[in-house]
Amino acid sequence: MRELSLHLLDIAENSIAADARNIQIFVGEDDKSDLLQMSVKDDGRGMDAETVARVIDPFVTSRTTRKVGLGIPLLKEAAELCNGSLTIESQKGAGTQIEVKFQRSHIDRMPLGDLPTTILNLVATNPGIHWVFTYQFNGREFVFDDAPIKETLDGVAMTEPPVLSYLRETLVTGVKETQIGYASKIV
Amino acid sequence: MTTIKSLEDLKRAREEALNKKTAKATSGVAQIIVGMGTCGIAAGARDAMKSILDTIESDSLNGVIVSQTGCIGLCEKEPIVQVIIGEEPKVTYGKVTPEIAARIVRDHVAKHTIVQDHVIPM
Question: Chain A: nearest CA to B3, how far in angstroms?
């Protein structure tokens, strides 16, 4: 995967697969600390310590009863190549939080890529999940919480064309304005 | 300077969606499912999904259900898109580029014509 926003989508898919009802996505970029951070926090079924170890490094641990993928190990490797890290905090029955950090200016850091499309895909096609997306750029912040949106929609689907237009424009504008420094607004 | 949309804009979008829905609720419900496992995402499923949503938006196709699923064990055929129209059997497409995804929406979902050259026999 060539974009961090694709990795973000991949991590969020794990939360969906873990039957999360609430998923919080954070992406932060900051020049002063030279950090790019992403985190996904869910209230899904969580993992025990052994499963976490296997998810991080599927070739080292021995257990073979549960399938794990390569998405997280590859992202961890990419982060560590850029003086960063990937950490997983999880508790069985309580949920999981994955946090990944990159040195933002590192020459090998993948581009963030199309963040609004990642979020739009998740929100529009998983209406049963409450999504909160926070994006920070050098101290400015954009928060997209889909709870008031669903309340306003009152049963109308996220994938209706005028609603898709609204969601797409809100996410694209929110991310762009946070990057270029217009006054941000909480949706 | 552009401004972030308000919930008032969303209310108008909702009314617009409701008005169109009543006018167009004739054919069977169309459902599109995109594989979003790691294999799918790595092969381009996000941009296939983006193309599907963009086409629904630009062509004003109402009442289409779009959802996603994990890896279905055909990783080499990803991105995979499945379409179900009403009671008809599920059609599975493989190696779906954004262009093919747009064709699937315009031909299969909107006009019920299967895009034969990209169907995976299941």
Answer: 7
In a structure prediction context, what are the per-residue pLDDT tens digits for chain A, which is 187 residues long? Answer: 889 999 999 999 999 999 999 999 999 999 999 999 999 999 999 999 988 988 888 776 555 555 667 789 999 999 999 999 999 999 999 999 999 999 999 999 999 999 999 999 999 999 999 999 999 999 999 999 999 999 999 999 999 999 999 999 999 999 999 998 865 555 4
Cβ-defined contact of B5 to A17 (cutoff 8 Å): no
Q: Which of B34, B41, B56 sits opposite A164 (nearest CB)?
A: B56
- Global pTM reads 0.92
A170–B5 C-beta distance less than 8 A: yes
A112 φ/ψ sector (left φ>0, alpha ψ -120 to 50, else beta): alpha
**A70/B70 Cβ within 8 A:** no
| CB contact set of A97 (below 8 Å; sequence gap of 6+) | A39, A40, A41, A42, A88, A89, A90
Q: Is the ipTM of this complex over 0.95?
A: no
